Automatic annotation (TrEMBL):
Top-level taxon in the UniProt lineage: Eukaryota
Protein's UniProt name: Heme-binding protein 2
Family under the similarity heading: Belongs to the HEBP family.
Gene3D superfamilies noted in UniProt: Regulatory factor, effector binding domain
Amino acid sequence: NQYEIRRYEASNWVETEISNMPLNTAKRTMFWKLFRYINGQNANNQKINMTVPVLGKHGKNSNSYTMMFYLSNSIPNPPQPIDQSVRINSLPAFTSYVRSFSGYPRTKLEWESEELALEQSLNSDGLTFDKSYFVTAGYDAPWIQDRHNEVWLFPTA
């Protein structure tokens, strides 16, 4: 019960990336860029419902972060972003190792602690995974204190 192995279907996401900025500042900046996109600041002036999860990709040996909002399959052709630092990313189907936890992680260290626990579980089970980055997934609004959170790692061949 330390982790799940999940298979996700192909999906569309809107994303933005920031480097060399403290995590909390980067998260706020990226969130508002993506929120403006779903709020109609896109090529079609189309408002798009907020969805979950909100993903964060964290490079292990870098100070770069990517934030992604899921775009529902009800939007087969997402409108192009106006902001050049925002892009549409069509992900193919993928498998991930997922560790779920509750609370409100506020620091990079808190997320890294959960990621390390997932690494240890996978190592003890003899599973291999990409060690260059991990993904965080949040499912609740910012004002919720006892949130559902996840860290994801990805199998290697």
